[in-house]
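Lab notebook, bench 4. The sequencing result for the construct came back, and we need a structural model before the next group meeting so we can plan mutations. Quick request posted to the team channel:

Model the 3D structure of this chain.
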Amino acid sequence: MNARDALIRLNMIRGLGAATIHRLLEACGSAEAAFRLDPEQLKLLWGRYATQEVLAEIREAEDGKALAQELRWAEKEKVRIVTRLDSDYPELLKQIHSPPPVLYLRGTLIPTDAAAVAIVGTRSATPYGLAQARRFGEDLARCGITVVSGLAEGIDAAGHEGALSAGGRTIAVVGHGLSTIFPSRHRPLAERVAQSGCVLSEFPMGMPPNKENFPRRNRVISGLSFGVLVVEAPVRSGALITAREAMEQGREVFAMPGPVSSRQSQGTHELIKDGARLTSEVRDVLEELAPQLREVIRPSTDSVRPELVEGRTEETQLPFGLTKEESEVFEAVPVGNGTSLDEIARDTTLQPARLMSLLTGLELKGLVKQSAGRGFSRPA
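Done. Here's the predicted structure in token form:
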């Protein structure tokens, strides 16, 4: 086995988590070296993790049959395997404690997926929570931000749906192997996510959706994101685990308030008391994360995707392939001299909340700027 194959094979051994694998790699220097250790050395390094089943699998790894089967299985299911040794492993995820040594992807990851925000919350969401998660998914996607969530019932699914409805990118991090989808009724949603982003897992192909897998996947949801928005969460919720992971990773945490009598919002209210940013609109998120987001999604001279803007008479081309709404707002903003939000609103067909969202997205892309007391303008 080469170094990459050895890492994939090591990740396939059940009972070994990312933290244990990293300790082993630090002690041995490489995944290949780990397979050359004798049982006594493994017991010294792994302690209680060196069960008879694990030791047997280490010995079986030498014939390469299990690895070959895993690679064939992934190819059949159109799943790509990315390891920490590969150049396209997400840089942001590398920064967390014990990042997954291996990722399985159905779909694609692209450089601008680094500009990501997670939307999480309870499976037992209220109509209010579902509407807000979908709204934020749409607004974030319209600003060029990738929406990350966990494909679960309730808030997760609504966040994905919002991003998809806006034609944006979204990543679903699941707690099982990609040979299946859980819950099964979300298989059509997973297929749509894979077409507009990716479904991602750190678990080998055949791993079932075991209960203990889901807390592990939460650190990946936050690890892929600059910030985590908790829409609705009771006091005992997996979404709060994701929020805690985000805090430990140094990521921003946002929480949406709900009715004081709602059990589904008790956890978000506790987060706000503990210092999470109270969030009611997408601009709250974007203002907090603007420095990080601008580094990723602003156009540069070597990453421009020119497209003609619908309705323009002259042959002017703009970067980032603006949507129809973005084009309408861009056209209403003058070059050089600033104009107020009210003046822009008069020249568009958009509601003020949507207008502010679009202006913020254009601002992040470097196409519009806002000056104190002078309003919005396009760079000359």
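Residues 299-320 have pLDDT under 50 and may be disordered.
Will bring this to the meeting.
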